[in-house]
């Protein structure tokens, strides 16, 4: 059987894809780790408007340039642009598949959606659960990495961000990912704890800015909680595959996210929040509720293009540190 490369637009039950012997590829990670400006330019040449989220344009070009056999789009529980993005990808000759998170978090609907995916890839539930056990043994190590970040401070916020964000697809090679993770954890445990003036929570989709974490640590603070990236790593380690994708907060109501954030604010003893929103993204509306219900100092940063922080944003960060550190 030939191994297929399956692109996807946000986290989904990758257990099913690994169980089928194929390789899941998170298009967002491809977009940011390659020439992202060129990816955006390519999409705009195809007619994508300037006033559209850069991740959508990046995902489109990443899909076209990654030698994919299929793209799975999450059409409920992720992005309001997903359906149209899939139509454009299909138009370019790449087969597409639609996956939905049930809006009301109903167990039977999630179960049915995973079964449909299993049928699509000719995989049994038993095989998916075997794959889950394998991936969970790696996720357990990511939970330890996260603990080394917030409790022992031997892992920086940037390192935490990179490992967790890449766990959405384990970079297509879980064995290699685990080997490198073992090596990283071994090195991290030997370090002295990092001094940190301000313990921050980072909320929202991963930043499109290239240097946000470096600027924050240059100011003497660090990100002790990467909210959505941690969700990508499926940190709860529950046995039930269906339940795993019901307690994953990102696809559902912002109130579920808020509950998780409030809990982590206490556990991680955070002093402030950086909430990131992407230009032209509907999640900016959810951000209003996060700001309303979180009582810590709250700084909202908006990004558009994959570039370094602009001077105005750096000044806002500096003022935030002056007042709260
Ligand atoms: S940042 Fe918002 S608009 Fe952009 S792809 Fe993600 S959910 Fe969609």
Question: Which helices and strands occur, and which strands form pairs?
Answer:
Layout: E1 5-8, H1 14-19, E2 23-26, H2 27-33, H3 36-45, H4 54-64, E3 70-76, H5 82-91, E4 96-100, H6 107-120, H7 125-150, H8 157-166, H9 174-189, E5 198-203, H10 212-218, E6 221-226, H11 227-232, H12 241-247, H13 254-267, E7 272-278, H14 283-293, E8 298-303, H15 311-324
Parallel strand pairs: 1-2, 1-3, 3-4, 5-6, 5-7, 7-8
Helix pairs in contact: 2-4, 3-4, 4-5, 6-12, 7-8, 7-9
Give a summary of the structure in a few sentences.
With 325 residues, the protein is of the alpha/beta class.
Please supply descriptive tags for the structure shown above:
4-stranded parallel β-sheet; binds iron/sulfur cluster; 325 residues; 14% strand; alpha/beta; 52% helix; Rossmann fold; globular
Give a written overview of the molecule:
With 325 residues, the protein is of the alpha/beta class. The chain has a domain of 119 residues: Rossmann fold. Helix content is 52%, strand content 14%. The chain has 15 helices and eight strands. It has a four-stranded parallel β-sheet with strand order 2-1-3-4. α5 links the parallel β3 and β4. The chain starts with a strand and ends with a helix. The model has no long low-confidence stretch (mean pLDDT 96). The site of iron/sulfur cluster (SF4) has 10 residues, from α4.
């Amino acid at each position: 059987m030939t191994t297929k490369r399956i692109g996807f637009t946000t986290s989904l039950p990758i257990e099913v894809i690994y169980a089928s012997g194929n390789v899941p590829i998170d298009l967002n990670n491809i977009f940011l780790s390659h020439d992202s400006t060129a990816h955006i330019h390519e999409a705009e040449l195809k007619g994508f408007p300037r006033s559209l989220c850069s991740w959508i344009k990046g995902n489109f070009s990443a899909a076209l340039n990654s030698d994919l056999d299929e793209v799975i789009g999450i059409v409920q529980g992720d992005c309001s642009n997903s359906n149209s993005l899939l139509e454009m990808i299909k138009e370019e000759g790449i087969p597409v598949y639609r996956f939905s998170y049930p809006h009301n978090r109903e167990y039977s609907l999630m179960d049915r959606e995973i079964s449909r995916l299993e049928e699509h890839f000719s995989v049994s539930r038993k095989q998916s659960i075997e794959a889950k056990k394998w991936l969970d043994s790696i996720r357990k190590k990511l939970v330890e990495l996260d603990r080394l970040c917030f409790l022992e401070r031997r892992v920086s916020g940037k390192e935490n961000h990179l490992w967790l964000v890449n766990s959405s697809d384990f970079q297509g090679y879980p064995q290699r990912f685990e080997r490198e993770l073992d090596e990283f954890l071994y090195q991290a445990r030997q370090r002295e704890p990092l001094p940190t003036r301000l313990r921050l929570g980072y909320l929202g989709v991963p930043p499109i800015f290239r240097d946000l974490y470096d600027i924050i640590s240059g100011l003497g603070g660090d990100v002790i909680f990467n909210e959505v990236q941690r969700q990508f790593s499926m940190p709860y380690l529950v046995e039930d595959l269906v339940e795993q994708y019901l307690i994953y907060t990102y696809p559902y109501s912002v109130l579920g996210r808020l509950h998780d954030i409030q809990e982590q604010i206490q556990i991680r003893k955070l002093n402030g929040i950086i909430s990131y929103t992407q230009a032209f993204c509907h999640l900016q509306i959810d951000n209003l509720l996060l700001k309303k219900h979180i009582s810590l100092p709250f700084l909202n940063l908006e990004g558009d293009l994959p570039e370094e922080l602009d001077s105005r944003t750096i000044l806002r960060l500096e003022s935030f540190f002056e007042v709260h550190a």
